[in-house]
Specification:
By secondary structure, this protein is mainly alpha-helical. 55% of the residues lie in helices and 0% in strands. The longest helix has 13 residues, at 45-57. The radius of gyration is 18 Å and the shape is elongated.
Length: 76
C-alpha cells in the first residue's frame, strides 16, 4: 500500500493541486462489523494473529506470514 501511495503522490506532484491526505479504504475490511472479541480461553495465539491480520489487511495471512508468526512464537 505504501508503494501505491508513493506512486499516487508522485503523479499528483506534477499537477497544480494539493492532496488533503489520501487514504486507502478496503471495502472488505470496512464492511466487517465489530463483533465481540473471542474469549482467550476459547482461542489460540495463532487464531488471534490470523484474525488481527485479516482485520488489518482484508485478506488471509500468507504462508510466509504464518511461518514468521510461528517462528516468533517458538522464541517465547
Amino acid at each position: 500500500m505504501t508503494q501505491i501511495r508513493a506512486e499516487a503522490e508522485a503523479l499528483f506532484d506534477a499537477l497544480p493541486l494539493r492532496l488533503a491526505g489520501p487514504s486507502i479504504i478496503r471495502p472488505e475490511v470496512a464492511a466487517i462489523p465489530d463483533a465481540p472479541p473471542p474469549s482467550l480461553s476459547e482461542t489460540s495465539p495463532e487464531d488471534l494473529f490470523i484474525a488481527a491480520f485479516r482485520q488489518a489487511h482484508g485478506q488471509e495471512p500468507g504462508s510466509a506470514h504464518l511461518a514468521a508468526f510461528r517462528d516468533a512464537m517458538s522464541e517465547v
